[in-house]
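S.,

As promised, the NAP run. Input:
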Amino acid sequence: MTSTFPTHLSTSVNKTVVVLGATGQQGGAVAAALRADGWGVRAVVRDPSGQRARALAAVGVETVRGDLGDPESLRAAFSGAHGVFSVQPNSGQAGAEVTNEDEVRFGAAVAEIAERCGVAHLVYSSAVTAGSTTGVDHLDTKSRIEAHVRKLDIPCTIVRPATFMELLVTPEMGLDRGHLSFLMRPDRAMQFIAVRDIGRIVAAVFGSPDRYAGRTMEIAGDALTGEALAEDLTRAACRPISYSRLPTQDEVLAKLAALVDDGRLAGNANLDALRAEFPFLLRFDGWLAGPGASLLDETLRSSDTGIARR
Ligand SMILES: NC(=O)c1ccc[n+]([C@@H]2O[C@H](COP(=O)([O-])OP(=O)(O)OC[C@H]3O[C@@H](n4cnc5c(N)ncnc54)[C@H](OP(=O)(O)O)[C@@H]3O)[C@@H](O)[C@H]2O)c1
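Predicted complex:
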């Protein structure tokens, strides 16, 4: 009898993927997409009784206590798993909980332990700037982890996500004042991706290991100039939103802006090829009308009630 079960879904039956960072943006999106494709998902969480961990458990995700800094907890979590999704927390910047060296240590440990546990497929989430030395320490951590992962004997896919669309509507960006400030010049394009789509791409990668193991993929859903971002935001917010480049007196911001200008942080993904491969990829206007609508609304409402950070 011919099976009508889609091939990428049949890969997932009775198999478990361990997801790191599942209470955060990327890991959360990966866990949701894997569950939708029929995988068992085991989330390594620092606090299983926390609200986000409990929300994961409520939708069928197995939550196990663990910490990126505790190799023994990772070994226990990876035992018997088919796959591991590896993402590390933001490092080295203002407000980050971990140092750049912690991030590299965590990324290396996850890959080494996955190899030793016989995991069949590791997916590491890196960033678009990996592959060249940028001189920005919290970006160069990704190149260091990639280099380490490549030395190991484990089938691995590296995804390099563009800047998240979610970042554009955080209160720090100025939308509450009718303005967006970001890194590119008003007339120069930068690539972006919806966090939801990182999850969907990673689930597709786990679903087709023969196609994706050994590949490094820059991933993005749209490319927009500062002016185009402002137009989309104006339409979605129903109020005028203008755009200007962030002031670059700050040394790190100046380096980031230079990396956008030379293309490395702006992103160089082939959007047409990605869209053909992953037809669900959202453009920015689609994201604003869909998963981003509540985030934009929240940021705008906080200004209406005067509670936005200034
Ligand atoms: N923002 C962008 O545009 C962009 C673009 C490309 C790549 N990136 C990269 O994306 C990564 C951040 O991903 P994200 O935004 O999905 O993260 P996030 O939302 O900030 O979440 C971080 C996750 O890591 C977990 N975590 C933190 N410390 C941990 C530890 N010691 N042990 C176990 N889990 C720990 C957190 O769990 P708790 O709930 O316990 O805190 C949380 O689930 C960074 O490496 C960043 O460089 C960002």
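The domain at 9-162+194-219 is CATH 3.40.50.720 (Rossmann fold). The radius of gyration is 20 Å.

- D.
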